[in-house]
Specification:
single chain, about 325 residues, alpha/beta, two-stranded antiparallel sheet, 9 helices, about 25% helix
């Protein structure tokens, strides 16, 4: 995806520096469609959104299957990535918020870092996964977080990397918010806006039928640096941001993203439909390519671990008020 100088790019969204802010605040968002795409197609999107129903086509499983097709380099859409486990839960009743709160307390995780108050219900049905595509280490230096132009940061997965502590300058107040929440590569997260708020994070939410999509989506950004192809642009040439690291994200990052998905689903009352930014905005020019190199199996396994932890805690015997006696089997009681 092309990275243009004097343009800010967050999670695949491109907008003028003077228009920094959430998509809802943009007066100059680029809503141009790809060649051959009609307004009718734009209204439906790749996965056939129905404005009246405020839903994509099909069952929750069918929607998730379409919305999580692989997002390839430069925004090309590939095969299905959805796992059997995610198919088995999407659209079904999510864990109750008290059990999720117990899980968070056991891990000393504050609600302020995972989307807001656990008991506050939300109306969103879709959980959009992004990557920040920043910093772009092919940009002319110096670039914060990049040691060498044209090279991905070697310490990007360590606590010492700048973006793991600063989140690229987030959270930001309205109207400069980029998403509801953001994860870093060492497994932490921040909340930029409560999951119950309307924070559009895609062109699809902003460019057409905006009122039908209000509070229908939760967007989560995930820190991921990029480099261009070529790695160092020729003099006078603008840097692009086509290449993400391989693997794209860390195991700890998947764990925290999965926890955000669990929390959002619990607040909704049902397991939300996961979606990729690149799929949702596929019909627009400068088609987004995030999340790039996303390992759905790793994300799914992390969701399953969190769900199992809740089930295990719920089924554990309650010993409160009981006196438990122990006996040393090896002792002689004479």
């Amino acid at each position: 995806m092309k990275h243009v100088h004097n343009i800010v790019r967050t999670g695949g969204i491109v907008f003028a520096m003077t228009l920094v802010g959430s998509p809802a605040a943009w007066s100059g968002v680029d809503c141009r469609l790809n060649t051959g795409i009609s307004e009718k197609q734009e209204r439906a999107g790749l996965c056939k959104f129905d404005v009246q129903k405020k839903s994509f086509e099909g069952s929750p499983i069918q929607q998730a299957t379409c919305l999580t097709r692989e997002v390839k380099r430069v925004g090309k859409i590939g095969d299905e990535t959805i796992t059997p486990f995610l198919k088995s839960i999407v659209g079904k009743t999510a864990p109750a918020t008290p059990s999720v709160r117990t899980l968070l307390n056991a891990q000393n995780i504050s609600a302020k870092d995972i989307g807001g108050p656990i008991d506050k219900s939300i109306s969103a049905n879709y959980f959009i996964i992004h990557d920040t595509s920043t910093p772009n280490c092919s940009d002319p230096g110096p670039v914060d977080g990049c040691q060498v132009q044209g090279e991905l940061p070697k310490n990007r997965d360590d606590a010492s990397w700048l973006f793991n502590s600063t989140f690229g300058g987030h959270p930001r107040p309205a109207p400069k918010r980029a998403a509801h929440a953001m994860t870093n590569r060492v497994g932490a997260s921040i909340t930029e806006g409560d999951f119950a708020e309307s924070i559009p994070t895609t062109k699809f939410e902003t460019c057409i039928d905006k009122s039908a999509k209000t509070k229908l989506f939760v967007g989560v950004e995930n820190i991921q640096p990029r480099i261009g192809d070529p790695k160092i642009p020729s003099p006078g040439e603008e840097a692009n941001d086509r290449d993400a690291p391989i693997p794209g994200f860390t195991e700890k990052q998947y764990e925290r993203l999965a926890l955000l998905y669990l929390v959002a689903s619990a607040r909704r009352g049902q397991w939300m439909v996961p979606a990729f930014h690149g799929v949702i905005d596929n019909f627009y020019e400068n088609g987004h390519d995030d999340p790039q190199n996303f390992d759905m199996a790793a994300f799914s396994a992390a969701v399953q671990r969190h769900a199992q932890a809740i089930n295990t805690a719920a089924s554990a015997p309650k010993l409160s008020g009981l006196t438990v006696q122990t006996r040393n089997i090896g002792a002689t009681n004479e």
